[in-house]
Amino acid sequence: MMRSRGYLAFIIGICLTAATCYAVVTTQRQQAQDNFQRDVEKVARDTEVRLQTYFDMLLGIKGMYALEDRIDRQRFHRFVTELKLDRRYPGFQAIQFVRMVPETELAAFTAAVKGDTAIDARGYPDFLVHPASRRDLHYIIEYTEPLKGNENAFGLDLAALPPHLRALELGRDSGEIVATERITLVQDSSGEPGFVARAPVYRSGPPLQTVEQRRAALVGFVAIVFRVNTLMREVIDASLLEHIHVRIDDGGYPGARDVQPSSVDTLLYDSAGKVSTHQARSAPLDGMAQQKDLMVGQRRWLMRFEGYGGTRYSRSQLPVLVIGVAGFIISALIAALLVSTRRVIDAKHGLEYSLAELERQKSNVEQARSDLSVVAETLKQAQTNLQTSEKMASLGALVAGVAHELNTPIGNSLLTASALSDMVRDFERRLAADGGLKRSVLETHLADARKACDIMNSSLTRAADLITSFKQVAVDQASGQRRRFQLDEVVHDTLATYAAQLRRAGCEVKVDVPAGLEFDSYPGSLSQVLSNLIGNALLHGFDGRDGGAIVIEARREGADLVKLRFSDNGAGMTAGTLHKIFDPFFTTKLGQGGSGLGMNIVYNIVTGVLRGTIRVESEPGAGTTVTLVLPTRAPEGAAPEPVHRPALQP
Fold first, then answer.
1. Which residues are registered as beta bridge partners of 551?
2. Which residue range or ranges hold the CHASE domain (predicted)?
């Protein structure tokens, strides 16, 4: 009986869960569609309001002509300038006045424009009506503001261009603002879609009730030239385009018979080319496609909207999943509770047994924790020993490098000394045999002896310098004592000990460390850091390469800090290697000379002993740059414990 009730409760719970999930999905879909609808209405309304604002301004210019139909170039220029269009109406390309010129007056009109000095004292001697054609009436762009950037439109005869002529004749006969179809502006070399809105201008006085009266009184047109992409950037928020696709096509004049289907020739605007998102690859969401018709200058614009998945129109599956899982669990628990009522006592005993077992497990965990502490301490001591070995190995490498470097000057000195000894014996023999020497022989002997002494002096001086540099570096690294030192001296001393290795690797070193950077710190630790960085560059950066370059430069950062940058043009590192570079025992040269402790030691020295910061930047094939920011006076106190897994600084 209890089992049947449990099954029934489980089935009812599952049904309620399914109903709740369906309600949540429906609500989410409705909310997303409501958001999409609001965005569609906003874009369409903002577009209409923006265009109406421009058209109102166009009617304002037309009103100026209603008071006086003969406006000269200077007054037109001044009127347009006072509108401050570039600040108040940035979406336009140009504002123009198109004059109707009969064929019989074309020559006089051309001459008058060429001689117009109202704005430019030189006039417009290059003015030309284009394209050249013979017809009863010409519609010529006489004024265009601004003229700069719109020179190609100056003098354009619109009567020779069928799309423009059709709009002009429609505006002339209707007396209303008329927009052209999609055109490519002659003054725009980018090829972006554009259109022109024009309002007819009539002579003041004559009646304008009929088409014939309007044709007889026509003077010309005032026009605004638009680039649609520029216009829509004012209307649509760029962030919205990440979620909604907007396409605008020219639908033609209402009632026209030559309306073209949507294509490249009718496309006015397509937001897909304005953002780089998933829109070009994915389909719109269900129920997120809509079309709006907008009348623009007696032409019908078809505005198509499509919504895409994302945060704005999201339909998160997480609430449905949570409700489903929670409903299933609750239903199962209720069913299990009803089924297992008779087993409560057995469960109690089982629970007591489980608690006892848990206590035993806890005791085992505590013992394991104690054992792990001992192992961790042992590993820590082993790491300390390995780090000491690494430092001694580095010092041994310095010894080997200096020994190799000393071979040449000492060998030269020995060879020169032997040659000088032979020359002295020969000189003594000749002196004893002849009983006297010529002056030329004595001068030659003295010149050879002086030259041999110079060679021995130069070689022994070089050897002494090497020994001094090595002695200072070795003493600093071995003692770890704090003292005052000059940064450039430590850098040059350290490089001197690696001269042989760098020369064998064909590595060029450039040092840009100004004199006068005095530190009160630990020169041995700083030398150890530079030694490890040089060793890494030779072992990893220039492995398999014929040569390379290392740059060491330093600059003061404020009063108490110095930025020291070590960079090479070697093989670089991948992101995975860069992430683990400071980990102890991590190396890409396991068994080939790399212990995996070099950069861990560098990190511990820089942050613990020198109390500075370190940042590593690298890309495969682009070399590696290590930037140290060090205080000129190291804080007092012992260095902290080593940090085994430091996070890389960005």
1. 510, 567
2. 67-304
Q: How confident is the model over 485-544, as pLDDT tens digits? A: 998 988 888 888 788 788 888 888 999 999 888 899 888 888 888 888 888 888 888 877
Tokens at 189, concatenated: 């070399």
Name beta bridge partners: 226.
Answer: 92, 195
Greatest Cα-to-Cα distance within the chain, rounded to the nearest angstrom: 142
Angle at 105 between CA 99 and CA 107, to 5 degrees: 100
Q: Give every CB contact of residue 457 below 8 A, 6+ residues apart in sequence.
A: none
347 φ, ψ (degrees, to nearest 5): -65, -35
Backbone angles phi, psi at 71, to 5 degrees: -100, 125
* H helix or E strand, kind and range, residue 179: strand 178-179
Nearest partner of 144 among 175, 168, 119, 176, judged by Cα? 119
> Is domain 397-631 given the CATH code 3.40.1190.20 in the classification?
no
Q: What is the tens place of the pLDDT at every residue in 85-109? A: 777 777 678 899 999 999 999 999 9
Burial of 466 (0-12, 13-18, 19+ CB in 10 A): buried
Token pair in block for residue 466: 């090497």
Please tell me the pTM assigned to this model.
0.48
The pLDDT, as a whole number, for residue 176 is: 93
Q: What values do phi and psi take at 528, rounded to 5?
A: -60, -40
Q: What is the pLDDT of residue 645?
A: 40
Q: What is the CATH number of domain 68-228?
A: 3.30.450.350
Cα dist. 481→401, 422, 486, 630 in Å? 24, 49, 15, 17
Is residue 300 within 8 Å of residue 271, measured between CB atoms?
A: no
Alpha-carbon dihedral 24, 30, 34, 37, rounded to 10 degrees: 140
Residue partners of 491: CB distance under 8 A and separation at least 6? 511, 513, 530, 552, 554
520: its two tokens: 């009160």
Query: Rounded to the nearest 10 degrees, what angle do helices 439-479 and 344-434 cross at?
Result: 160
Please state the domain extents for the chain. Answer: 14-51+236-329, 68-228, 397-631
Tokens of 292: 């709006």
**CA neighbor of 487 nearest in space, from 383, 424, 564:** 564
CA separation for the pair 168, 267 (Å, rounded): 22
Q: What pLDDT score was predicted for residue 217?
A: 92
Alpha carbons 430 and 540: distance in angstroms, whole number: 60
- DSSP notation for 88-128: H-TTEEEEEEEEEEEGGGHHHHHHHHHT--SS-TT--TT--
Which two structure tokens, joined as six digits, stand for 577? 């290697």
Report the pLDDT value the prediction gives residue 596, as an integer from 0 to 100: 63
Give me 273's structure tokens.
Answer: 């080319």
CA atoms of 534 and 624, how far apart (whole Å) = 12
